[in-house]
Specification:
By secondary structure, the protein is of the alpha/beta class. The chain folds into 4 domains: about 130 residues, Response regulator (Rossmann fold); about 170 residues, 3-Layer(aba) Sandwich (Rossmann fold); about 80 residues, Helicase, Ruva Protein, domain 3; about 45 residues. Helices cover about 45% and strands about 10% of the residues. It contains 19 helices and 14 strands. The strands form 4 sheets. It has a 5-stranded parallel β-sheet, sandwiched between helices. The chain has a 5-stranded parallel β-sheet with strand order 7-8-11-6-12. A two-stranded antiparallel ribbon has the order 9-10. A hairpin with an 8-residue loop joins strand 9 and strand 10. It is flat. It starts with a strand and ends in a 10-residue tail after the last helix. About 0% of the residues have low confidence.
């Protein structure tokens, strides 16, 4: 229920407006034009203000100023019995939504209030959406403490402050678009459009029209002039994903845009200037494609002014636990479910898996676990077989030494594997297990407790 604050020194006006607005379904607060109104503005919650301009104890213009200072999105409607164009102009200049004369029309008041509340709703919604977008694309929201990611963060900070063209490389699923959005969100163009297009998703003729626009009649179905994405992104950023998949003809046109900062719509003759920052991305080796004659060398050098390489997930194992917790929280909260816990075996398996699909594959698995797993604690049984196999350490086997290798975690994993195998072979007989492992009975008890190993058939 929306709340309306009415400020007027005439009791009859207060009573009349209260009755009218309550019948319309609004909650009403009233103030008879006393200095206490300033406390009301600071301390009470309301969605719209109707205030007289001339009152003996307080100035309606000051009421307007205080409201706009404390609650900028709250609309204010001014009422006066004095026909003064100067006052009306001043009230509007200070931020009043509208101005109405006494005696006023009741239906007009209803319409003004409804319009004011709708305007405020749109302002608040826009504010929330902008904040959500900033949080989603901000540099700080990128997950990673590993050295490769810290190097990426440092480079993004430096790149964002410039207008230079950027080429983001990396395997599929490494977060190339997220990096592009982070560059835009931290640049001076942050309040302008960020326009993204997947160049591999459209055939050549449609891609050209999407990028550069077209004029009416230029091809079948072109029933009117249409702006392209370069025009839409004016003063902002355009992100060309999978740029390595573009045709030679499109590459020629892209080079011309980078060279001259001008575009020409399909079927048109007019040269249209564009002011955009270009960020491109590819999962291909463009130098190899140049050698194969599939990518134009001059375009590569125009795009590759600053290069940002997104590391694959297998090169940043330290980040996997952070990403797991981030995605668990994100998807469980979105689904309205309690955040799930993972057993140590699950975390180990997810950390040791090679992740050919990178971060996207990890998020997909976590989202599926949040959606289908009923239990609060997720066990290895819920994981795909290839992920489970990756988490198993063959007794006596040596790990592949990769950047970010955790020796302590690996030794713990080996110890658990030996303990479980000994427990199975000894059918849970602790003294037999101690003999198999070559440790004292007391040491075995300590290790079993440390790694939470239970004997077969042992009570919970």
């Amino acid at each position: 229920m929306n709340t309306i604050l009415i400020v007027d020194d005439e009791r009859s006006i207060l009573e009349l407006l209260s009755v009218i607005l309550k019948k319309e379904g609004y909650a009403v607060l009233v103030n008879p034009g006393t200095p206490s109104i300033y406390e009301d503005i600071e301390q009470k919650e309301f969605d719209l203000v109707i205030s007289d301009i001339k009152m003996p104890q307080v100035d309606g213009m000051e009421v307007l100023r205080r409201v706009k200072a404390e609650k900028p999105t709250v609309p204010v409607i001014m009422i006066t019995a004095y026909a003064s164009v100067k006052q009306a102009v001043e009230a509007l200049r200070l931020g009043a939504m509208d101005y109405i004369m006494k005696p006023f029309d009741i239906e007009e008041i209803k319409v003004l209030v409804a319009n004011g509340l709708e305007h405020r709703r749109l302002l608040e919604e826009n504010k929330i959406l902008k904040q959500a977008l900033r949080e989603e694309t901000s540099f700080e929201n990128m997950i990673g403490k590993s050295r490769p990611m810290q190097e990426v963060f440092t480079l993004i900070e430096k790149v964002a402050a410039t207008d230079s063209t950027v080429l983001i490389t990396g395997e599929s699923g490494t977060g190339k678009e997220l990096a592009a959005r982070a560059i835009h969100a931290n640049s001076r163009r942050r309040d302008r459009a960020f326009v993204s297009i997947n160049c591999a998703a459209l055939p050549e003729n449609l891609l050209e029209s999407e990028l550069f626009g077209h004029v009416k009649g230029s091809f079948t179905g072109a029933i009117s002039d249409k702006k392209g994405m370069f025009e839409t992104a004016h003063a902002g950023t355009i992100f060309l994903d999978e740029v390595g998949e573009t045709s030679p003809w499109t590459q020629v046109k892209l080079f011309r845009v980078l060279q001259e900062r001008m575009i020409r719509r399909v079927g048109g003759n007019e040269e249209i200037p564009v002011n955009v920052r270009i960020i491109a991305a590819t999962n291909q080796n463009l130098r190899k494609r140049i050698e194969e004659g599939k990518f134009r060398e001059e375009l590569f050098y125009r795009l590759n002014v600053i290069s940002v390489d997104m590391p694959p997930l297998r090169r940043r194992p330290d980040d996997i636990p952070l990403l797991i917790q981030h995605f668990l929280r994100k998807h469980c909260e979105r689904m309205g479910r309690k955040i799930k816990r993972l057993t140590p075996e699950v975390t180990t398996a997810l950390t040791k898996y090679s992740w050919p699909g990178n971060v996207r594959e990890l998020e997909n698995i976590i989202e599926r676990l949040c959606a289908v797993e009923e239990r609060e604690t997720i066990t290895a049984e819920s994981l795909p077989d290839d992920v489970v196999e990756a988490g198993r350490v063959p007794v006596g086997g040596a790990p592949v030494l990769l950047p970010g290798f955790d020796l302590e975690a690996h030794l713990d994993q080996v110890a658990q594997a030996y303990l479980k195998e000994a427990s199975e072979k000894a059918a849970g007989n602790m003294r037999r297990m101690a003999e198999l492992l070559g440790v004292s009975y007391r040491s075995l008890r300590y290790l079993m407790k440390k790694y939470q190993i239970r004997r077969p058939g042992a009570a919970e």
